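Record type: ASSEMBLY
Status: queued
Input:
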Amino acid sequence: MKLLRLRLANYRGIDKSEVRFGSNGLTIVEGANEAGKTSLGEAIRLLFDYLDSSKNQSIGAIRPVHLDAGPEIELEAESGPYVFTYFKRFYKKPETTLKITSPKPENHTGREAHERANEILHETIDIDLWKALCIQQGEAIQQANLSNKTSLSAALDVAAGGHRADPREETLFDEVREEYRRYFTEHGSEKKELQEAKKAQDKLEIEVVSLEKQIQDLETDIVRAADLGLKLERLKKQELNLQADISKYTKSLDEIKNLENVLETARLKLESAQKSEQAAERDKEVRQELIDAVTKAHEAHSKRYESIKISTTSVKKEKTDMDTAQSDSSSAEAQRKETESLLNLYRADYDYFNNKLHLEQLKERKAHIESAWEEAARAEELLAKNNVDEETLKAIQKAERSLIENKAKLEIGAPNVLLRGLTDLDFQIDGEQNTIAKDEERNLSVSDRVCVTIPGYLQMELIAGSSLSNLLKKVKDAKQKLDTACEDVGVSNVDEAMESFDVRREAQQSIERQKKIEIENLRDLTYEELEKIVTGLEISVPAYPADRVPEPNLPPNLEFAKKELGCTEDGLETANKVWEEARRKLDAARKLHDGLNEKYQKMKVELDLKDDELKHVESKLTRSRRITPDDELESELSKYTENVCTEKEKVKSAEENLRDKEPDKVRTLAETANGSLQTVEKTRLAAQKENMEVRTRLKIFGEEGLHEKHHTARSHLEHIRQENAALFRRALAANLLYETIKEERDKVRLGYVGPLKEKIEKLGRIVFNNSFEVEVTENLEVASRTMDGYNVPFESLSGGTKEQISLISRLACAMTVSKDSGAPLILDDALGYSDPERLKLMGAVLAKAGRECQIIMLTCVPDRYSNVGEATVIRL
Amino acid sequence: MTRHFFSEGVQERFAQSRFDAIRKLGRIAEEEECKFMVVCGDVFESNLVDRKTVLLALEALKDVPVPVYLLPGNHDPLNAASVYGSTVFLERKPVHVHVIEDTTPIRVDEDIEIVGVPWTSKRPLQDLVALATEQLENVVDTMRVCVAHGTVDSLSPNPDDPALISLKAAENAISQNKVHYVAFGYRHSLTEVVDSGYIWYAGTPEPTDFNEMKPGFALVATINEVGVTTKEVNIGKWNFIEREQVDLNTKEDIEALRNWFENLEGKEQTVVKLRFIGALSLSLYSELEELLSHFQEIIGAVETRMNNLVVIPEDADFMDLGFSGFASRTVERLRSNIENSGSDNITSRDALALLVRLAGREL
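Status: finished
Output:
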């Protein structure tokens, strides 16, 4: 379709407006805002869409604002073979006219005109595509929705070398896709309905299995209950049999017990008889033993008696010998004692003389000590008075030396006054009385001041100069020190001090000497001990002669005493030897005697014992015989032996009787039966318990209606399976059909996407560069742009580029369909986002497209399209 | 009793029919002046039936005006989980309803005794009837009815079954005057076991499956010194129809099937099982599906087996579509799949049918 002329009257704010479009190429409609540019595109759409009587809001909106008149639209156009003028007045005096001039004249009015116009439109152009390609204000950046645009598809099909696409197939495809979408999502996943169906089936299958399991468990329990019933019956029977066996065994055991008692009694009796027999035998043995013992005791007694007789003689003889030895020993001992007494006397005498001598010596030592003590006391006394010890002396001597030294210094420095006696004269120096003989010279050193006085005549005061006063003072100090030192120890001068020191040293030596004397005389004693010994001896020594026996006489002196003592000691030694010999002999005799005597005593005791023993056994035998004579014992034994034989027979008989009853076997069987009974009872109780449990389970679960539940669930499952099978079959069919038809459609689509892609790229390379490529989807949308090797998705491109590619895409489509179903491309205020450089290039694109299709550009910015080449420009 | 081919509502109707059958039996007993009624085993489908089922059965039995003797059978044996020992049964059992628990003769009337042979397990290991009748003494002046359950050896395909009932032994018992009539349960079909008329299977009062020969009857037996006479009274409401080979090749065959469905009586209480054979075009197959879908909503249950029905797409199926582009290519590919009989044969066929349907609906 080509627009030739459009006239508007009473349209919105437009009173009258007529635009004549260029029959080919570009038409630029310029106009300021509200000049009615947009109304041009709108008016063409309203002209075809609405009846003149329409009360639609869109029609209401185009009424003139300040005028009560109907909006008028008149369009002169070519479409396919048709050339027509189409007029409509809306709202006020509505009117529609259609005047067709080619291919054959036609005139229509009213609804007929409207329907005919639409018929022509539908017949000659793809209205949807036309609307999609046109750019309304404000939507320039968006791509046109080109999917399912029949004419474009057909054109592309043709361009791709295929058949013209059947629009019904697209509709069928939509139907197929709709069917597919009933079961699957856009991404091919199963929809909830399918998932739920599967889940429901799975759930039911689990339920059926669970119910079958429960029923199976119950069936098992039913079988088990029957088995348990039989088992309990069998166990009960076993119990009864065992109880009967036990009863039988109990009876047998009672009999066995009786027989055992009989046997026990017989054995006891036999034992008793055997014991009696043994007792009789023992009595008899005891009796014989007694008889033997008496005989033996007799023999032993006789033997001992003979022995003791011999022993008595020996003892007597030894006694005599021992007495003799005793007598000899006593004599020797008396002699020894006598000699010993004499020896003691002489020893006392000797001691006496010794003590006497000792006393004297001690007295002498004591006197030496006491004398030394006195001497020492005196020395001590002297020492107490004399204080001049070595140190003091040295101090005094030191002070003296100091004085001398100072004096010497004074004398050297001091004025020296030579006094020369002209006569013997007494005079005083500093008040001290001095005498000077005639011709005697005396130097007088004046250290400070010296006053020489001749009493009654003259007093001469010699005063030293000032330099001497210090020397004089030192002399005085030294003198003072010496005096003080002398005074301290009680001497007047140094000489006296030295004397005192010598006296003191002598006294000290005397004390040491006396101490030595004391030590020598005391020796190892103390003085007190010495004094005690002396005192004792002074008492004992004088008393001894008085206290001593008169005979023999006291020797005259120590020498004699010593001699007597020596003689007596010899005598005592001899006497001791004699006595020792006598005593040895006595000991030997006594030992022999004692040995024999002991042996005799022992034999005597043994004899007494044998005698007692004999008497005892004889007495015992007598008593025993008195109770039971020997023959009676013999008869008793015979009787008991016979009795034992009888009892043995009885025991044997009882044992045989018991053996016949097989007690061990019976007892074992009874025990086994008891054990078996217990086992059976336990088994029965366990079975009863299990039976109870099984029956309880059966009671509980058996009445739950599992049968119906199971059948219902199975039935339900079967239904669901069938339904699901049908559902999934339908879904599979829909899926297969969709996949197949889509594949086939895509193949075709991809075929015709190629020409469109080629056209877009051809136009695009004018604006961009030679590397410009686009990816076009099956919906004929540009998915991405590739330039200089970089691929950028459409949505990520800048606003300007998006706008340019969208416009290029529209132009490419318009060019594609222009021959058959082409319609004018109306661009309202497009390319608002493009920079001047791009605008220039886009102008070239528009110019190229304008050569193949009609393009009407509405703009309020005329400069925007200054580079579109040759164009019809209309100013509103 | 549940059947997988029933929908939920139909299942409930079917179950109710079985309870109704009990009441109907009661009415017949009254009409026929019966002295008692015996149910020869499998009163309940299982011992594990729901409490409600037991309650409803007892409620129905309550309406039966004569004494009723229930024999435990292989489905409801008198074992540890027996429904007859359940709390609900013991608590709600009407006084005139009795459970035969052993083979001791039960005096029903002055001159009538019942000797029941109840099952105590699901799989007896011997002929219980022979065992019971062997121990019986013959009777004079008393009519004795043996009530038993199981398969008579003359009717069993499995001679090794240890529980088979010896027909000879049963006949011997009759000839020895130990019993005068044997009422068997087990077979769902009304069956006269021997021509003498003394031994019968009464069958199930309400059909339950396709393989039953003569279900849905109550058997009224009149027993006296002269002999036995029986009367069959149809009480079943449901009808199970199975057609083994329904040949479908042409549109006429589809129409014949439609007519057959239309002519069915008591559609809502009819259960149909159809096994199709033949080959249909895609469009005819679509018609068949529509037809079945229609009648499945009307008839009690429709079960179909299509294993032997081949669907072959024909050119005629696509003649009217008039596609030339990708849709046409799609049709070609799917037809190719079907012709190559690949693993997705059925799916391809369904996909093609779907395409035809969508195209037909929209184009």
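Annotation: The domain at 8-234 of chain B is CATH 3.60.21.10 (Purple Acid Phosphatase; chain A, domain 2).
Annotation: Chain B touches chain A through 52 residues (CB under 8 Å).
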